[in-house]
Write a structure and sequence with these properties.
There is one protein chain. A hairpin with a 2-residue loop joins strand 4 and strand 5. A five-stranded antiparallel sheet has the order 2-1-5-4-3. The termini are far apart. The protein is built from five helices and five strands, in the order H-H-E-E-H-E-H-E-E-H. It has one domain: Beta-Lactamase. It is elongated, with a radius of gyration of 21 Å. It comes from Stenomitos frigidus ULC18. This is Phytochrome chromophore attachment site domain-containing protein.
Length: 179
């Protein structure tokens, strides 16, 4: 009596044979690379700007967003998962950021901003705020934001340039993972 054994299969060859599985693995790999780049970028910016918080605010629907990455000087400053003030961020503000607007606020208490925005920033313990858009070919993908919470801050041109470069640095990885 002879026992037959199934042919030994090479798992790598099975992966190459299934295009759907290969696309899934590629997409997961690209997402992991993007996430690592965003973590690195927000961390580098938080340290180089010496601020309390740098985060990525991602628009998952038209002008509805959420904090998806953050780098902090102290865990007490975490706002991970927070959503923005829906009533405050509207088409008018979106159009400004679509045009490349950079918003640098030295002191939220003295800056002429709408009250709902000021209240929102107060709730986040923010004293100084720097926002740059993350623009992809399809439009405004999100915002890269630096907050200084412990005191006011005069933003230098180098701070603004660093944030803009950070936003531009993550765009290729975002574009490679967008459907």
């Amino acid at each position: 009596m002879q026992i037959s054994f199934p042919e030994e299969r090479n798992p790598d060859s099975a992966l190459r044979g299934d295009p759907k599985l290969q696309r899934l693995i590629t997409r997961l790999s690209l997402n992991l690379e993007r996430d690592q780049l965003v973590r690195q970028t927000t961390g580098d910016l938080q340290r180089s700007l010496n601020v309390d918080r740098v985060f990525l605010y991602y628009f998952y629907r038209q002008w509805k967003g959420q904090v998806t990455f953050e780098a902090l000087s102290d865990p007490k400053f975490s706002i991970f998962g927070s959503t923005g003030p829906d009533a405050c961020f509207n088409d008018e503000y979106a159009a400004l950021y679509l045009a490349g607007r950079v918003r640098a606020i030295e002191d939220i208490e003295t800056e002429p901003i709408v009250e709902c925005h000021r209240d929102f920033l107060r709730d986040l313990q923010v004293r100084a705020n720097l926002v740059v858009p993350i623009l992809i070919p399809q439009g405004l993908w999100g915002l890269l934001v630096a907050h200084h919470c412990q005191s006011t801050r005069s933003w230098a041109e180098a701070d603004i340039t660093a944030m803009q470069e950070g936003a531009r640095a993550i765009v290729p990885s975002i574009c490679s993972t967008e459907p």
